[in-house]
Amino acid sequence: MYLKKLQEKRAKAQEKMESLVNKAKAEEREFTEEEMAEFEELEKTIKSIIETIEKIKEGRKLTEEKEPESEEEEKKKKEEEEIEQRALAEEKAFENYLRGKVEERADVNLTATENGAVIPSSIADKIISKVVEICPIYQLAERYNVNGTLTIPLYDESTQSITCAYATEFTDLESTSGKFTNISLSGYLAGALTKVSKSLINNSKFDIVTFVVNKMAESISKFIEKELLIGTDNKITGLRGVTQQITANSQTSITADNLIDTQDEVPDLHQANAIWIMNKTTRNSIRKLKDTEGNYLLNRDLSSKWGYTLLGKDVYTSDNMPKISAGNTVVYYGDMTGLAVKVGEDINIEVLREKFATQHAVGVVGYIEIDSKVQDVQKLSKLVMASASGSQGAE
User: Fold this and answer.
1) Burial of 313 (0-12, 13-18, 19+ CB in 10 A)
2) How far apart are CA 285 and CA 373, in angstroms?
3) C-beta separation of 175 from 72 below 8 A
């Protein structure tokens, strides 16, 4: 803006100088002393403006030029470029293997196995990144990427907590504390198989790599989400381990009070990032519920993550969540970092070119080691429908 004003000022000064010259020419005379002084003043002004504009341009150029990179920065940049180039080469090698082409570069060849070949880590990383992207529960949980058994300290203040009280000199303080235990996350092996039609593979214009990455990610994410929400006996526990529970008075319907009580089970300290998880049919059944002031509890909200908010928090629906029925856990609420998920670092994904040859297809199989348990009981709560026997709701 300032540069533009200077240019306009210079143009006006030039017009004024030109006007003085034209006037003297028209009258066929020399400049008067006053005109000469004015002309010289305008000339100085224009010269000053030109110099100022040049300095501004030079200053901009200097600020836009980057300082020479240090040796460490150059090394880091080179390493990043090498990683990127290798990832591209591995992706091309993976595509070639799917299409039955032999890669000439030995350093990017896929590792051969009895049944096929192991996919490079860069492709496996893409699949796992996609899983995180499309599986919100896994994305929001506290994730640990380690091999072997992981032991996490668990601090529980549900029955007793650390308290501060008035003290009297020479009188011992009474010791109070929460309960320290721990949870162990091992690794349960799970596999996903995707078969790809050779008709698609033979189509050179088809992005076969993205197709395989997406299909594998979808398969793995469906399994992970189900296990995190429902769990399996003697395997992954997931949210089944939530202990803060509200039991509905009915086997077939949820009240506004049930939802308010479920939300209030989680302390205010952990409310900031809390979400609701339920089946779509459960969400539909509570759409007409109102609070004591006549306001709907569930609201359509396009600015929220998944399009709805309930009591001010985002609502995520999953087909894996049980529908409203006697004894079912129909709603989870809370900060999902209260759930620990351990996935082994070594994700094994293989291409099986021969196994499904008679089906005119190529198989891609992926194996993961995963485990999940609640690591912070205060961050999570659940709503359970009344059981048929009238006792506390079952898992």
Assistant:
1) middle
2) 29
3) no
Under DSSP, is residue 310 helix (H, G, I), strand (E, B) or coil? Answer: strand
Q: Give pTM, 2 decimals.
A: 0.68
- How many other C-beta atoms can be found within 10 angstroms of the C-beta atom of residue 68? 7
Task: Calculate the CA 219 to chain-centre distance.
Answer: 19
Amino acid, single-letter form, for residue 302: L
- Closest C-alpha to 241, from 147, 326, 329: 329
370 forms beta bridges with: 188, 343
Per-residue buried b or exposed e for 90-111, using 16+ beta carbons within 10 Å of the residue's own CB: bbebbbbbbeeeebeeeebbbe
The pLDDT of 76-80, averaged and rounded, is 81
In this prediction, residue 393 carries a pLDDT of 41
Smallest Cα–Cα separation from 364: which of 226, 201, 236? 201
Quote the DSSP letter at residue 290. Answer: B
Cα–Cα distance measured from residue 358 to residue 257, given in angstroms and rounded to the nearest whole number: 59
Q: Report the pLDDT value the prediction gives residue 110, as an integer from 0 to 100.
A: 58
Cβ-contact 380, 244 below 8 angstroms: yes
- pLDDT range class, residue 114, cuts 50, 70, 90: low
For residue 1, is pLDDT > 70?
no
Average pLDDT of span 289-309? 85
